[in-house]
Design a protein that fits this description.
The structure holds two protein chains of two kinds. Helices cover 25% and strands 23% of the residues of chain A. By secondary structure, chain A is an alpha+beta fold. Chain A has three domains: 110 residues, OB fold (Dihydrolipoamide Acetyltransferase, E2P) (Beta Barrel), CATH 2.40.50; 42 residues, Dihydrolipoamide Transferase, CATH 4.10.320; 194 residues, Chloramphenicol Acetyltransferase. In chain A, a hairpin with a 4-residue loop joins strand 17 and strand 18. The termini of chain A are far apart. Chain B has twelve helices and seven strands. By secondary structure, chain B is α/β, with parallel strands linked by helices. Classes of the chains: A alpha+beta, B alpha/beta. The interface between A and B is medium-sized, with 38 and 32 residues.
Chain lengths: 390, 347
């Protein structure tokens, strides 16, 4: 499919002017096509016999799609240099060694009919075609160039700067990032495009710990926080909404995820309808999911689609952190390590020892403000003070 | 005043006039057949980027190209395949540009119409309408400052460009500086799809010239003989120091704005009017009537030109494409400019 206009990404087949088996001459009209601007004919690139058409009538195809095949005569093939020895190189290799490039398959992706241009643009800063080709080859993104000081016009990164950067990297020890690492990196980079903020407050864990001691099986501390968050969101789910364009998308069910450290990354199993089952009923499922996550064997139904995540960074001995919500979520509730601290008891007029932990709520500030986040977190903390109600 | 074949007095059947007309016709024919080939290659997916044809404008275009000397300056527009050939561009260079050959004047980095050889006075066009007038003014002014005299600079526009500020500023500047500029306007009835009734309200675009104090020439753009006469006179007057000359040729664009445009909006009445005549056919009939050529000769030329174009396309399709690793990505002439600067400062 030829590019029939500068802003044309595709065209529809409206008429076959010849049939398979027909002999055609070079430049002869073969297929009538329609773009969103005009109707025109696609011509034959050479003379020969139409072998087959590989497209359907009234269907739209992206620019670059193979429309069919013509068997050219031997004479024509040689004349047009269609086959045989490749093009003669007229210049010596440049300063950059040239690796083999395999043509990327499916470069042109079919788009919605009528979409004016293929939507595959990336990056805003100027990169020369030569540098782009080199980066594509190595599978790098524009973000990977952030650390390079460009020496080109207006500070642009030249291919020489880039090669120096790559040569410098090669002198250092490098290991391959696992696919888990690359996936987490991608999720965090996408999430970071939003304005994120964190609020926090301390909560006394004594009642929770006593409740846990008397339970069998014992719920993990994060599950208390998860259940408290689920109840709070069931009362008012608006803070977990997502901002898409000018609309808030409200959650349809209170599915809450929790972070489990697995090899070289973090997995987030999901407990569905966490507001509808008691802490006791959730405990076994929670423990199962922790185990499955550690083995990286989470079933599909226990991943994705959650509206918020709970992370217990206290397990690393941390008392405070500002975790980043998943890209498709607005909220992440964090829980720090419990510590024995003095608490001033007004009634008794003295300090008493209590076990306290910090709760943090990190959120997409476009959806939620400090007040809304604070009210939600306060409600979660209150619920955690009465574990028997969870 | 409008010149046509009928009211033009016989061009004095001198050998010079006959030879020039025959040469111009052959260039027009080459341009037309090249355009046909570009259209076919474009619709076969072999040309990337736009294809803009000059069908119906060959007589005007060849007339200006053939009236210039090799030492003059020529800044053609998108519909000037004929003028480019007349000014000295080779068929193979034209095809190399469209097919993206690394051996072409643009080294395969830019397709279609932005080609040229600036050091030879053949300026690559800027796409913005009217923008090339100032470029030609600047080149002419530079030559004046260097003491180079006797050269003319010509550039081509469409009716749409006369509505731009660039046209106004540059024509005024050329008049004030009395530059040897020849401005060729093809009033082809449509600026893309906008009819001239939505472009201007004066009777003839040539009327605009008097407002700038510039000499004007109106001509029937479908008539090769009239175009040759008008362009020849305008170039001679500019060369003799009479200041800028505006040529306005009325004709009809016999194709879409580009090959992506099916030109459905063109008024069918225009196609059958005298404006809609095909200048190539008009010229052919003139040559036969004058008995300057017979149909066998003209058919022979057509066969020769088709073969020349087909051979050039076959050759170019075997030539290498540009290579981002070999390419230096500098502007077209900056290296030459640096060399010139070094020479200047050294002398």
């Amino acid at each position: 499919m030829p590019q029939l206009g500068e802003s044309i990404a595709e065209a529809a087949i409206i008429h076959f002017l010849v049939q398979p088996g027909d002999s055609v001459k070079a430049d002869q009209d073969l297929i009538e096509v329609e773009t969103n601007k005009a109707t025109m004919s696609v011509t034959s690139p050479c003379s020969g016999r139409v072998e087959k058409f590989s497209v359907l009538l009234n269907e739209s195809y992206a620019v670059g799609t193979v429309l069919g095949q013509i068997e050219a005569t031997q004479e024509e093939t040689v004349r047009l240099g269609l086959d045989g020895p490749g093009p003669v190189k007229n210049a010596e290799a440049g300063p950059v060694s040239r690796p083999e490039i395999s043509p990327r398959s499916g470069r042109v992706q079919p788009t919605v009919r009528g979409l004016p241009v293929p939507a595959n643009a990336k990056g805003a800063s100027y990169l020369s075609p030569r540098l782009k080709a080199r980066m594509d080859e190595l599978g790098l993104h524009a973000a990977d160039l952030a650390g390079i000081a460009g020496s080109g016009a207006a500070g642009r990164v030249t291919v020489e700067d880039f090669e120096k950067f790559i040569a410098h990297l090669e002198k250092q020890r490098m290991s391959k990032a696992s696919s888990m690492r690359v996936a987490v990196a991608d999720a965090m980079r996408r999430s970071w495009t939003r304005p994120l903020a964190t609020v926090g407050l301390p909560v006394a864990l004594d009642a929770l710990l006593a409740h846990r001691k008397s339970s069998s099986p014992k719920p993990g501390p994060a599950l208390y926080a998860l259940r408290a968050l689920a109840i709070a969101l069931a009362e008012n789910s608006a803070p977990a909404g997502r901002l898409v364009g000018s609309k808030i998308v409200h959650p349809s069910s209170i599915d809450v995820g929790f972070a489990v450290e697995a090899e070289d990354g973090v997995l987030v199993p999901v407990i569905r309808d966490a507001d509808k089952k008691s802490l006791k009923d959730l405990t076994q499922r929670y423990n199962e999911l922790v185990e499955l996550a550690r083995q990286r064997k989470l079933p599909a139904e226990a991943t994705g689609g959650s509206i918020a995540t709970v992370t217990n960074y206290g397990t690393f001995g941390l008392i405070w952190a500002t975790p980043i919500p998943l890209p498709e979520q607005t909220l992440v509730l964090g829980m720090g390590a419990g510590r024995r601290v003095p608490f001033w008891d007004e009634a008794k007029g003295q300090f008493l020892p209590v076990t306290e932990s910090n709760l943090t709520l990190s959120f997409d500030h476009r959806v939620l403000d400090g007040g809304g986040a604070g009210r939600l977190l306060t409600r979660v903390a209150d619920l955690m003070l009465k574990p028997e109600t969870l | 005043m409008l010149h046509t074949v009928l009211d033009t007095p016989p061009v004095g059947e001198t050998k010079a006039a006959r030879d020039q007309t025959l040469a111009a016709y052959r260039l027009m024919l080459t341009a037309r057949l090249l355009d046909d080939k570009y259209a076919a290659l474009y619709r076969g997916g072999k040309i990337h980027g736009g294809v803009f044809l000059g069908r119906g404008q060959e007589a005007l275009s060849v007339a200006i190209g053939i009236s210039l000397k090799k030492t003059d300056i020529f800044a053609p527009l998108i519909r000037d395949a004929a003028g480019r050939l007349a000014f000295g561009e080779t068929v193979v260079d034209a095809i190399r540009t469209y097919l993206g050959s690394a051996l072409g004047p643009m080294r395969g980095r830019d397709g279609n119409v932005h080609r040229g050889r600036p050091l030879e006075g053949y300026l690559p066009m800027v796409s913005h309408l009217g923008a090339m007038i100032s470029v030609v003014n600047g080149t002419l002014f530079a030559r004046r400052l260097k003491g180079v005299s006797g050269t003319v600079g010509a550039t081509c526009l469409g009716d749409g460009a006369t509505s731009t500020g660039a046209f106004h500023e540059a024509l005024n500047q050329a008049a004030v500086e009395k530059l040897p500029l020849v401005l060729v306007v093809a009033d082809n009835q449509y600026a893309y799809s906008t009819p001239t009734s939505r472009q201007f309200v004066c009777e003839d675009l040539a009327d605009k010239a008097s407002g700038y104090g510039v000499a004007a020439h109106s001509v029937d753009g479908t008539d090769l003989v009239a175009c040759l006469k008008t362009a020849g006179e305008a170039v001679a007057r500019a060369r003799s120091g009479e200041g800028p000359q505006l040529i306005v040729a009325r004709l009809l664009r016999l194709c879409g704005h580009g090959e992506h445009d099916d030109s459905h909006y063109i008024d069918p009445k225009l196609k059958t009017s005298p404006l809609g005549r095909d200048c190539l056919k008009v010229a052919e009939e003139f040559l036969l009537r004058q008995q300057w050529a017979d149909s066998a000769t003209l058919d022979g030329w057509r066969t020769e030109v088709v073969r020349e174009i087909e051979d050039a396309v076959a050759q170019v399709r075997r030539e290498p494409a540009p290579d981002p690793y070999d390419e230096k990505w500098q502007a077209i002439s900056s290296r030459h400019l640096i060399e010139l600067h070094d020479e200047d400062s050294g002398s």
